[in-house]
Design a protein that fits this description.
The protein has 557 residues and is α/β, with parallel strands linked by helices. It has 22 helices and 14 strands. Among the domains are: 77 residues, Arginyl tRNA synthetase N-terminal domain (Gyrase A, domain 2, 2-Layer Sandwich); 175 residues, Orthogonal Bundle (Isoleucyl-tRNA Synthetase, Domain 1), CATH 1.10.730.10.
Length: 557
RNA sequence: GCGCUCGUAGCUCAGUAGGAUAGAGCAUUGGAUUUCUAAUCCAAGGGUCCCAGGUUCGAAUCCUGGCGGGCGUACCA
């Protein structure tokens, strides 16, 4: 039984008040806990002062309590400093040491999911980053996680790409930069098609041959997919993004017919205006879900239903997350509803984790018609700008490489997840590359600073220990850090990485205040050892947090 | 039209289950370095929490109705 439960139980057993609201205080000034007395006054009809006295009397023999204070209808309770510190340190250190068991079920997270025949653009950045961080958070909070990349590797557009390669392509060029080269061929195809409409038939024919697995076509397709993935993975690596499996649309293709049959057998499918659809109750206010076009070609809803069933039935996912933009909210609501109609047990398993769009204000990166912003270019641009700033300082070439890469990518990642994912993000270079304030560089700088002090102190930072002394200056940090598990659990429940981002910013703020107030490596040995252990604990939390965010710490800054 | 979503300081955003004086960063102004990295810290100014009702002892937070922005709304994904 922890302290909160103990207080609640004693009050319950010894007074008439059964529904107590006990709040843990986050910052100092109003005690460590407070009980809100208004509701008790209301239900009992007694005066607040009297209730307060009754509660105090009941709690009289809890020796950990050092003080009571009745202000504005709140009974604030203070705990003895040493008891509080013991508890907070114990918690703070155990969080760093205990390895969580993965026994909370299997989560399958679908994120990034680029279309190979289309550019890997900035539009995929949010899904990639948010999905990866959520996967890390689920792992950290005790879930088994399967990270899947549902790549767009099938469909008529591949017929166009193949025709493009056959007519104008150069495999060497494609291998060097598949993303841009394939796009160029795709664009070229459309330009030529405007002049020679018969190209369309050629593309259709090419895709038909691909479907029939004709050797030449199938091998070319395999090649395109392979080099594209290899290229995209370079970007993933820079962002600290990982996947367990690439399962694209082509993977699910063989199962589509079976899915359709199941839906028909369950009497869910209707023919409407020539198309095959699933209709919903009037009260859902959802338009029907289209599965097949009138020409019988499948639509992406059918592909997503197929993939969903596979993830639950074959991959045994207990929870499925789809990290896809908010503009597809309706689509997923429909797909989920179709699956729920098929099997009621599926209700509540699937969740669409949406996010807002990027909005561009800078003219440089603005999306003019047909002007694609590649993900790779965004990262490069960020790294170049960081390098420009760093070049004024005294760093070696290798240090510059290290700093600009880590700070540049860190800045892009942090810009993406520093606020509520549902909101649109203003993408402005001024903001992304601001090195001050609530930014990734601020966090990285703080970590580097701590490391530098630890190095100077010749401190072996592999282990964490409780400092031998307690200082008042530690308490805000401790209180904050003690909440790490709660914070992460909240971030997981809401699928909100910005909760972790905010946690790290505050943590760094506490350290930097401390740094400016007290000298870490002071004369007095015991105090010095204490401070060193203290900042080492902070560093461990920053490292843990940045690791989840996929942000790396440079050697120097 | 209907559905979803957002609206908090000049700008960008936090605000945990409805609780005390609504908080940060940027920008502005002033201050801190013979000292562990000033990419830091301390301080000041700056608010009809879009508007109007309602529920409540108590509302930025919940409900209803407006207003404004974004997205979606049958054969693209």
């Amino acid at each position: 039984m922890n302290f909160e439960e103990k207080i609640l139980k004693i009050i319950k057993d010894n007074t008439e008040y059964k529904n107590i609201i006990l709040k843990k205080q986050k910052t100092g000034g109003f005690g460590d806990y407070s009980i809100i007395l208004f509701p008790l006054a209301k239900s009992s009809g007694k005066q607040i002062e009297i209730i307060s006295d009754e509660i105090k009397k009941a709690l009289n023999n809890i020796e950990e309590i050092s003080d009571y204070e009745l202000i504005n209808g709140f009974l604030n309770i203070s705990i003895k400093k040493d008891v509080l510190n013991d508890r907070m340190w114990k918690k703070a250190i155990s969080i760093l040491q205990i390895k969580k068991e993965k026994n909370r079920g299997k989560v399958i997270i679908d994120y990034s999911s680029p279309n190979i025949a289309k550019p890997f653009s900035i539009g995929h950045l949010r899904s990639t980053i948010i999905g990866n961080i959520l996967a890390n958070i689920y792992e950290e909070t005790g879930f088994e996680v399967l990270r899947v990349n549902h790549i767009g590797d099938w469909g008529t557009q591949f017929g166009k790409v193949i025709v493009g390669i056959q007519k104008w392509g150069n495999l060497k060029k494609i291998e060097l930069d598949p993303v841009k080269e394939l796009l160029a061929l795709y664009v070229k195809f459309h330009e030529e098609q405007a002049i020679y409409p018969e190209l369309d038939d050629e593309a259709r024919e090419a895709f038909r041959k691909l479907e029939n697995k004709e050797k030449e076509y199938y091998e070319l397709w395999q090649y395109i997919v392979r080099v594209s993935i290899e290229n995209i993975e370079k970007t993933y690596k820079r962002l600290g993004v990982k996947f367990d499996r690439y399962m694209g649309e082509s993977f699910y293709e063989p199962f589509m017919e079976k899915t359709m049959q199941r839906l028909v057998d369950a009497e869910l499918v209707k023919e409407s205006q020539g198309a095959w659809v699933v209709e919903f109750d009037e009260k859902t206010k959802m338009p029907p879900c289209l599965l097949r076009k009138k020409d019988k070609a499948s639509l992406y809803a059918l592909r997503d239903v197929t993939a969903l069933l596979y993830r639950i039935e074959e991959l045994k996912g207990n929870k499925l997350l789809y990290v896809v933009g908010n503009e597809q909210k309706l689509h997923f609501a429909q797909v989920f509803k179709v699956c729920e109609k098929l099997n009621k047990d599926f209700i509540g398993i699937m969740e669409h984790v949406g996010f807002g769009l990027y909005k561009f204000k800078d003219s440089k990166m603005s999306t003019r018609k047909g002007n694609v912003i590649f993900m790779e270019d965004v990262l490069d641009e960020a790294c170049i700008k960081v390098r420009e700033i760093m070049e004024e300082r005294d760093f070696s070439k290798t240090e510059l490489d290290d700093i600009s890469e880590k700070v540049g990518t860190g800045a892009v990642i942090f810009n993406d997840i520093s606020s509520d994912r549902n909101k649109d993000v203003d993408f402005s270079w001024d903001k992304v590359l601001d090195l001050n304030g609530e930014t990734a560089p601020y966090i990285q700088y703080t970590a580097v600073r701590i490391k530098s002090i630890l190095k100077k102190a010749e401190f072996n930072s592999d282990n964490v220990n409780r400092p031998c002394m307690d200082f008042e200056e530690y308490s805000d940090t401790l209180r904050h850090v003690e909440d790490f598990e709660n914070m992460l659990e909240r971030a997981r429940e809401k699928n909100q990485p910005h909760i972790l981002a905010g946690f790290l910013i505050s943590l760094c703020g506490y350290f930097n205040s401390f740094y400016n107030k007290k000298r870490v490596l002071c004369e007095e040995k015991e105090e010095r050892d204490s401070h060193v252990e203290f900042i080492n604990v902070i560093l461990k939390y920053i490292e843990k947090g940045l690791d989840i965010l996929g942000i790396k710490i440079p050697e120097k800054m």
